[in-house]
Amino acid sequence: MSNIGWPTPVELTCAAGRMPALWRAPAIGRDNACNLLFVPPFAEEMNRTRRLMSLVGQGLASRGVGSLLPDLPGTGDSDGAFADAGWPEWRDAVACAATHLAGQGAPVLLMGFRLGCLLALDALATGLAVRSAILVAPVDSGRQHLRHWLRVRAAASLESGQRVSVGDLQKRLEQGETVECAGYELSPALAAAIAHLDYGPLLAATTVPVVRVEVGTAPDGVHTAPGRRHVAAPAPWLLAEPGEPSLLADTLTEIVLEVA
Predict the structure, then answer these.
(1) Strands 184-186 and 179-181, how do they pair?
(2) Is residue 18 exposed (0-12), middle (13-18) or buried (19+ Cβ within 10 Å)?
(3) How far is the C-alpha of 159 from the C-alpha of 173, rounded, in Å?
(4) What gap in Å lies between CA 8 and CA 73, rounded to an integer?
(5) pTM, whole model, 2 decimals?
(6) CA distance to 43, 52, 231, 235, per residue, from 248 (Å)
(7) How far apart are CA 14 and CA 24, in angstroms?
(8) What are the structural domains of the chain?
(9) How many Å is the maximal CA-CA distance in the chain?
(10) What is the pLDDT of residues 2-51, one digit of tens each?
C-alpha cells in the first residue's frame, strides 16, 4: 500500500501558542509546483469539511503538491479553548502557517472554505504574500453567517425546553456574555469581529489572483468563468452526516493544479 498523501503531524508556534498541523508531503520524484494551505471553516462546518480537505490533500500529494491543514487556535488540538479564540489570533495563525510552508521552498496557495475564505482574504489584505487563493463557497456576509449560528442555537433550545430567540442571544453577546452555539462557546469579541466582515471589500483589498468556487446542484457539472467555478456536488458543510465527497475533492484538486 502506498504511503503517498499520508499525514505527518507537525508542531507550529504562533502568537496564541502551540498550533498542531497535518503535513502531506508531495510524492518523491514529482515537481513540487506549489504547496497548499487549508484555511478551515467555522465551528461544526470545520468538522464536516475535514474529510474533504483530507481527500484533496491526498490527491494533491500524488500530483506533486504538498498541503498543510492547521488546527487554528482554540480548535482541534491547538492551545486554548474555543471561547478564547479571537479573529486577530486566527489571522496571525494563517500567516504563521503560510510562512512555514514558504520555508519548504515552493510557492504557497491558500484554499479557504466558507468563513475561512474571509479569514484568508483578511490575512491577504493585511500583508500575507502568497501566489493565489482558492475560495470554496465563501461567506458573503459575516453578519448573516453569525445569525445562521444563532438560529441554530435558537432552534436547539426548542428541544431542550429552554427556549431562546436569536434576539436574546444577540443581546447576550452585546452585553459581553459568551454564548454556546452548536457546541462551541462563542465569545462577544469573536462574534463582533465576524459580524464586521464582508466578502466584497476584503476581495477588493486583495492583490493576488483569486478563484471563487461555488458548490451545489448545476445541470452541466462544472461551469467555468474568469475567476469562478461551479461544482455540481453535495456541500459537506451543509450535511449532518456527509457522505464521501470524492467528486468535490477531485474537482478541487484539479483547480489547484490549474492555478499552480
Answers:
(1) antiparallel
(2) middle
(3) 22
(4) 19
(5) 0.93
(6) 21, 8, 7, 8
(7) 20
(8) 8-140+198-259 (3.40.50.1820), 142-196 (no CATH)
(9) 60
(10) 577 889 999 999 988 999 999 999 987 666 789 999 999 999 999 999 99
